[in-house]
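Tutorial handout. Part one gives the primary structure; part two gives the three-dimensional structure as tokens.
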Amino acid sequence: MASKTKSRKRTARATPEGFPQSVAESAQKIWLAGLGAFARARSEGDKMFELLVERGQSLRGQARTVADQAFKNVRAQADATAATAAGKWDKLEQVFEERVARSLGRLGVLTNKDIDALAKQVEQLNASLKSLSGGSRKAPAKKKAATRKARK
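Part two.
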């Protein structure tokens, strides 16, 4: 079965006589607190902005210092690597030249040293020939070039 709900009469609470006035005062205080917060945020906002600008400048200087140091480190490593590579390249070139010289020696090709030694021997032989022949021998005269007649 359905039960009946009892209806209660709502009675208006007793309101103090100054209630509308206290609401107005409270609203006024809230308004003033908001204005005060706005003014403080505005004045401290400028200070905060200046503080942030100073902090940014400080960080920019630090970042520049760190970047410069990193650049110097990279430059030093690149220079060291280039020097090492140059040394390795020179060594590789020397090994290559030695192997080519050995191969040419096996084939019987004369080296610069051999040619220089032969040139010295030829000079010595020429000197000994001059001393044996008396050294007064004149060089043979050059032949005159044959003259041609111009065609007409």
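Part three, for discussion. The helical segments are 19-107, 112-133. The chain has a mean pLDDT of 81.
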